[in-house]
Amino acid sequence: MAFFIKATQFLAALFIIVGIHELGHLLFAKLFKMRVNSYMIGFPPKLFKVRWGETEYALGSIPLGGAVQIAGMVDESLAIDHLQNSPQPWEFRSKPAWQRCLTILGGIIFNLLSGICIWIGLTYIMGNTYLPKDEVNKYGIIPSALAKKIGFKRGDKIMKINGKNFDDFNDVLSPSFLLRSKSYYTINRDGQSLTLPIPENVLENVSDIQKDFFIRPIFPCVIHAVRPNSSATLAGLMIGDQIIKLAGQSTLDVYDLIRIVETCLDKTVELVYLRNGIKMVTQVQIDQQRLGIEWAQPKYRQLDYSFIASIPIGLKKALELMQCHFLTIWKLMTGKLALKKSLGGPISIAQNFGNEFIGYKFWTLVALLSITIGLMNLLPIPALDGGHALCILYEVLSGRKLSDKFLQSTQKLGMILMLLLMLYALGNDIRKLL
Question: Is residue 248 part of a domain?
Fold first, then answer.
């Protein structure tokens, strides 16, 4: 059931994003009075189709793309026989370069605008809930093996990012920060200020450990509630007690305790705790219900915004994501990031969706993917919108059009390149699962 929910969310997101992208092409083509033969979300076989006016609207069964077939254009069909006739006023090729360019870029424009609008809407509806830096710095952080290689130690307190103060702990792992050259953390370790530089390729390694963590806050094992008739009640534990050792192993935070408990099921073990600063020892039996305690939760901060105030915040999130994509592409081109570790396919994308539907998470991923797909289509690769726009730009600068035969050949080459890239990304997905 969990797989079905995750897969359904992924497919729904693709249909929404592809539909928005193709709608951009459709509306600009209609605006400039081009004849649109078909508008299709997904690839054949068709699940549904209806004709309205001159245009057939269809829904395909494979949601990995879509197409808008505009008269007088060399497109995914690779057909050019119809271009041997004289150009007609309603055809793509007979329109001014600026109209053709806007029609080509319409999908990208709509993807970017939809991502921005979704983020503005989420900011207005949900506000921003985050863990403040000061709350984390009460106890510091726990580093992963990768974070330890960078120089982090348990209990370090992150004070600044690239020399600037911050409030939201999520900023510590912001891709826009990790992708920048010469980025660094300023930390406090036992009262001493230290600088930890960030390696250029750290983000690809963080992705490798995404199932675990890079750095996480320390949440001490302070008891917030004790269930009646539980193992904790029988052991004499009370609200406010802090567990510091279980079964001979130190429990410096809640995650340590959870890990140890999982190894001690159906056993009676020694538990050491602090009560009003005094160390105490008891025996506790860990049954299938675990200990029967709840932890003191960290104090998250909630910020609410008016609709007007939500606009610049949503726009900022979108612009930061765009910046991350451009930085990623640049680092891939310069070899500072490995394509093998940085490129993911449909399986990697689908895994970001949860095993249950959470509206905020779903629409956040839709916004992120919409902007991502928009920017990917901007790349000057044949078969992508950016490749078509580049051909129009050449025409404007040189004063002559490229031949239909040349456009057909580049379209074919681009489709082969994109197929190979998709297969490579799928191979990366499979490799990560093995």
Answer: yes
Other beta carbons less than 10 A from residue 137's beta carbon: 18
Candidates 108, 34, 74, 25; CA nearest to 401 is: 74
3-state secondary structure of 192: strand
* pLDDT number for residue 207: 56
Distance CA 59, CA 46 (A): 6
Count of structural domains within the chain: 2
| Separation CA 107–CA 25 (nearest Å) | 5
211 and 233, same domain (yes or no): no
Residue 69's contacts (CB-CB under 8 Å, 6 or more residues apart) are: 36, 37, 38, 40, 75, 77
| Strand, coil or helix: 253 | coil
pTM above 0.85, yes or no: no
DSSP state of 155: T
Extended beta strands in 155-266, E state: 157-161, 184-189, 192-197, 215-217, 223-226, 242-246, 249-250
301 belongs to a structural domain: no
Tokens standing for residue 184: 């660094």
64 domain-assigned = no
Domain that holds residue 230: 223-295
Contacts of 41 by beta carbon, 8 Å cutoff, 6+ apart: 15, 18, 19, 22, 58, 59, 60, 63, 66
Give the neighbor-by-neighbor strand order of the sheet with 249-250: 249-250, 242-246, 267-275, 278-286
Quickly list DSSP for 174-185.
-HHHHTSTT-EE
Query: Can you state the percent helix, strand and coil of the chain, rounding each to 5?
Result: 45, 25, 30
CATH code for the domain in which residue 163 is found: 2.30.42
Torsion of CA 422, 367, 66, 396, to 10 degrees: -90
Residue 211's pLDDT is what? 45
CB 292 within 8 A of CB 227: yes
pLDDT of amino acid 411:
78
Residues of the chain short of pLDDT 70, as ranges, are 75-84, 204-212, 289, 341, 433-434
